[in-house]
Here is the input.
Amino acid sequence: MRKGVMRPGHVQLRVLDIDAAVKHYTELMGLIEMDRDPQGRVYLKAWTEVDKYSLVLRAAEEPGMDFMGFKCISEEVLDNLRAGLVAFGCEVEDIPAGDLQDCGRRVRFVAPTGHNFELFASKKQTGKWGVNNRNPEAWPRELGGMRATRFDHCLLYGPNLAETYELFRDVLGFDLAEQVLTPEGKRVAQFLTVSTKAHDVAFIEHPEPKFHHASFYLDNWTDVLRAADLISMTDTSIDIGPTRHGLTHGQTIYFFDPSGNRNEVFAGGDYHYPDHEPVTWDAESLGKAIFYHDRVLNERFLTVLT
Here is the structure.
């Protein structure tokens, strides 16, 4: 049952060299730098997004994810969800408006996996970049790099997947779109959606909380192939692809930013409505589920985490 969470709103990543990171996310991926704050954080967005930013970069001594945020439909919903988080037993922190540039108050909580998430309802809207909201052209001519269209989801590794699913389902209103089960019926991977997308956040069983990747959407398979060309042209470290997923059936390529954070760009993929049953993959078919063409998992995909 939907609870008023709309979509992924932003993710804050730690990077080792802020200038190298900004170059990677703007010149290679095609995101647009929108702002910087007194803390030195850099705010970026993909061109179709109406909110001011969806990616925040913070200079740090080790890479990884600080938090992932979801946008709610109203401040009243935010209050209701906060109460639900407390009743569930989550550790909750209230962050005042303005802590992130042009963003309203946020409610941060720790999921059973150990990852930090947050909810917010207000953020300055700047509209789609490079096109008007009235009689808009098809796309901005100034776009460069991979021309990513939106921040789509994160994949996270961590423990306590069953409890995390209960939290996202019962408190936040997410559906289970796809899952991977062991022969004993234990869920070791779960793809959760609060929209009609194949997933808005996903989790894979792991002993400690880690960041696997942040994903950005492209228009089509040709754009994924073009992204692969750009990765080679810039000597960017690649993980795997271009290929197709079995899970979600998206067309994908994985690579790394200069700090070692994994990125994905993808196109296509399945859709999900609340009356759909979860798609289930058997754990012994995990290779085909992740990399449909190769049907085997590469070591980097499983072990390189930040």
